[in-house]
Amino acid sequence: MSVCIPVYNGERFLAETIRSVLDQTYRDFELVVLDNASTDATGRIARSFGDPRVRVETNPSTIAQPENWRAAVRLCRAPLIKLLCADDLLHPRCLEYQVGPMVADPGLAVVAARRHMVDERSRVLAPRRGLAGLTGVRSSVEVARRVVRSGANPIGEPGGVLFRREHYDAVGGWHPERRHAMDLDLWMRLLQCGEFLGLPETLAAFRVVQQSLSVDNEAGVYEHQKAIMAELAASRHLQIRRVDSTVGHVLAPTGRFRRRVLFRMSKHATRRDARLPSAGRPGG
Predict the structure, then answer these.
(1) Fold match between 1-87 and 88-275?
(2) Which among 18, 141, 222, 266 would be 20 to 30 A from 45, CA to CA?
(3) Rounded Cα–Cα distance for residues 71 and 84 (Å)
(4) What CATH class is the domain 1-87?
(5) Distance between CA atoms of 39 and 246, rounded to whole angstroms?
(6) Digit-coded pLDDT (tens) for 166-192
């Protein structure tokens, strides 16, 4: 299988992210790091591991983030794919738990797991998030109804999800026009190709970095998720009920509020660390 990490100026967290991949109990994978013409030490860090499973590629010039994600998947050589953002983490047994079901059941299109939300020092801010009502094998109809009811993305970010390259190609890959919700958009299109498996284990960590939240980005996430919900609701095949859409409209602002709270928690933790003497800081 292939794990790909598209990265731009990711020197701060990249080494920890790569180590979390190389420390997997499942060993038969390639790790593709695509450096988007970074201007910091990203390339040097990526090449420092000396592990034959790591392949580092570099774009000749910086391209838009959605295009870099698409390029990273194109570089992958294996039939099973996981894209991992350059500041997120995998649990040591993530690949073991996700690859097994995919190999055993060719009818699965997506295998997802819960994730922790962590701060800039990898401390857990919110544990075991995601997949409410979505554990076990689920049809596209069941998943779509749960997504619309949530008004958000209950499946989660790319690090917690494994998918098949053939399905990714069949549905057109990441859609750049949905750049603020490319993950949810792809998950729902992949389910045109097979079923969904939600694992109850927490196998990834999404890092809440304060620089990631801007007014424009937050508004973009909200608007792109709303557009995805509208498309799902309009699909006859997915059989979205009026009650699903109604509940989703009510809950969508709650999801937005939760995101703001998490970023505030991370910001406060970072400020608190800055006030501590270095000897008192974790790892200091």
Answers:
(1) yes
(2) 266
(3) 14
(4) alpha beta
(5) 47
(6) 999 999 999 999 999 999 999 999 999
